[in-house]
UniProtKB/TrEMBL annotation:
A single cellular component GO annotation: cytosolic large ribosomal subunit
UniProt keyword Magnesium, yes or no: no
UniProt family annotation: Belongs to the universal ribosomal protein uL15 family.
Record field: compositional bias (Gly residues): 21-36
Protein name, per record: Large ribosomal subunit protein uL15
Organism of derivation: Candidatus Dojkabacteria bacterium
One MF annotation (Gene Ontology) recorded for this entry: structural constituent of ribosome
Keyword Ribosomal protein appears in the UniProt entry: yes
Length: 147
């Protein structure tokens, strides 16, 4: 039997070439398959898809996006119906001034919205506030009015 008459094995897996391990590895020696001179033969060269050959990379040339704050944005402060039921008496007027005076809304709040969480049993007169649909139903069901 001779070496050229041995059949080739299918799906054989060869060990990977150990590059950069000296002359005894059988691959390259001191150039290690990189060629002789030039930027790519040196240590520290980044061969990534973002490498631009000495230019300042694209992501460093671009300005940093830090977002922005909308100066005229108005956030409504939420007040639930269950809070109004505890704090107000039957027939009281509920507006921005009364909410601030009772400490329910902040002093600097400009917009207050009444939300429908909880139940209400008192007849309240709500004036000049934003109100959710579920809160409108519950206030009218309790006998209150909305202006």
């Amino acid at each position: 039997m001779k070496l050229n008459s041995i059949p080739k094995r299918k799906n054989r897996v060869m060990p990977g070439k150990r590059i950069g391990r000296g002359y005894g590895s059988g691959v390259g020696g001191h150039t290690v398959g990189r060629g002789t001179k030039g930027q790519k033969s040196r240590a520290g060269h980044k061969s990534t898809r973002f490498f631009e050959g000495g230019n300042v990379p694209f992501f460093r040339r671009m300005p940093k996006y830090k977002g922005f704050n909308q100066p005229q944005k108005v956030e409504a402060q939420a007040v639930n119906l269950e809070v109004l039921d505890k704090e107000f008496k039957d027939g009281d007027l509920v507006n921005l001034e009364s909410l601030v005076s009772k400490g329910i809304a902040r002093k600097n709040s400009k917009v207050v919205k009444i939300l429908g969480k909880g139940e209400i049993t008192k007849k309240l007169k709500v004036e000049g506030l934003k109100i959710s649909e579920s809160a409108i139903e519950k206030i009218k069901k309790a006998g209150g009015s909305i202006k």
